[in-house]
Write a sequence for this structure.
């Protein structure tokens, strides 16, 4: 939920509102205005009813914001960067760079939001009487906000993802079993059950005439099922990145030249590439079958054309170690991490003997992962990914790998 308009920053955290938030703001304002109109203890004009409804709705979303800030500040205390908080149709969500690296850290982050809501709810309910002494309408407003914060806190403690209660279940199972993956699987299963129950109850209420309540439950259930599906896909991606090896995604974006070739031959090769194959292949250099290094276009750019026929490629070599490389037997998650850390456009794939045997780029890596998921990319999409040197379809593999490393699902990376 990263879409939306930024309206301000709180503690360095951008606060955004999603377009769908205005829909729920209007609905909440209408519901609160209707409540004030039906309350016989406070007689206010219709315009005041809508004004009070609007203020109450805004204060409710301030409560939602405080709930998310609870999550965010606890996460930040553990060194986790919070990208933004977004208010949207179903409430609010904090977008974090990664999860906590320990089960107890994850538990504290998950519990912080409901704790804020419950404390705020009890505090408001304890002051209803005092507020009513100031003005009956103020007491009514405080009572509504107090009860809604209690509902918000308790609802979020339901034990299923994506609710905070599901995150707590995940953290507890993770702590007991030592496996974050097992925690996610258990919490995700609980989330699916809760989502189906919500949709079933919502449908029953809808049939019996409770239109808005039933529709809201169905919407919540549908959202929960979508979140459970996304979590399952994340688990699947993590499994694929650990199981697949670099050799299964490697291509061959390099050509081989001899140390005795002239710079003129290098120039002609580059011209041919521009006409036929597109630019960018690496040029590796051999001497009697032995790898000697790599050459780029720098000599052509720095030396006068008159020297292109006399200078040999072997005179301008760079070592193969200047290229980012990875073993063909390494898991794909290591390739993703190394591509991001080295800022390289591709990796040189090395055989078990340490010799070049291929290259690996983001588009091909992403295509292999998608193929494992049963999705074959159309040629135009693949060509677009190659031009942009990105993972196809915006596949967020770097974020997946960062989560795997941060939570200990995978341990370290071989820098070679």
């Amino acid at each position: 939920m990263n879409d939306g308009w930024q309206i301000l920053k709180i503690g360095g955290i951008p606060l955004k509102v999603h377009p769908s938030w205005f829909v729920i703001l209007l609905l909440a304002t209408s519901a609160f205005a209707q409540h004030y109109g039906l309350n016989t203890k406070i007689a206010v004009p219709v315009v005041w009813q809508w004004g009070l409804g609007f203020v109450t709705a805004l204060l409710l979303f301030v409560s939602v914001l405080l709930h998310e800030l609870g999550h965010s500040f606890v996460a930040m205390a553990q060194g986790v960067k919070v990208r933004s908080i977004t208010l949207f149709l179903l409430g609010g969500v904090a977008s974090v760079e990664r999860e906590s690296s320990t089960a107890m850290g994850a538990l504290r982050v998950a519990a912080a939001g409901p704790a804020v809501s419950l404390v705020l709810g009890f505090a408001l309910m304890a002051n209803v009487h005092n507020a009513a002494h100031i003005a009956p309408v103020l007491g009514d407003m405080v009572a509504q906000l107090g009860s809604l914060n209690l509902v918000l806190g308790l609802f979020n403690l339901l034990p299923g993802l994506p609710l905070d209660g599901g995150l707590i279940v995940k953290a507890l199972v993770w702590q007991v079993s030592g496996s974050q993956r097992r925690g996610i699987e258990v919490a995700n299963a609980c989330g699916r059950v809760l989502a189906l129950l919500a949709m079933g109850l919502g449908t029953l209420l809808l049939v019996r005439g409770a239109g808005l309540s039933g529709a809201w439950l169905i919407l919540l259930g549908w959202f929960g099922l979508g979140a459970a599906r996304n979590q399952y896909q994340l688990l699947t991606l993590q499994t694929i990145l650990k199981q697949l090896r670099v050799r299964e995604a490697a291509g061959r974006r390099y050509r081989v030249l001899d140390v005795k070739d002239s710079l003129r031959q290098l120039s002609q090769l580059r011209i041919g590439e521009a006409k036929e194959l597109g630019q960018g292949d690496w040029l590796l250099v051999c001497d009697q079958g032995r790898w000697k290094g790599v050459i780029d276009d720098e000599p052509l750019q720095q030396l006068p054309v008159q020297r292109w026929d006399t200078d040999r490629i072997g005179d301008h070599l760079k070592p193969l170690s200047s290229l980012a490389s990875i073993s063909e037997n390494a898991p794909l998650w290591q390739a993703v991490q190394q591509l991001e850390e080295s800022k390289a456009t591709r990796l040189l794939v090395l055989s078990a003997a340490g010799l070049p045997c291929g290259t690996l780029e983001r588009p091909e890596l992403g295509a292999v992962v998608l193929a494992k998921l049963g999705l074959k990319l159309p040629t135009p999409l693949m060509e677009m990914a190659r031009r942009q040197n990105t993972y196809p379809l915006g596949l967020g593999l770097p974020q997946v790998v960062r989560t795997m490393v941060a939570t200990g699902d995978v341990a370290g990376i071989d820098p070679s």
Summary: The mean pLDDT is 86. The first strand starts at residue 5 and ends at 10.
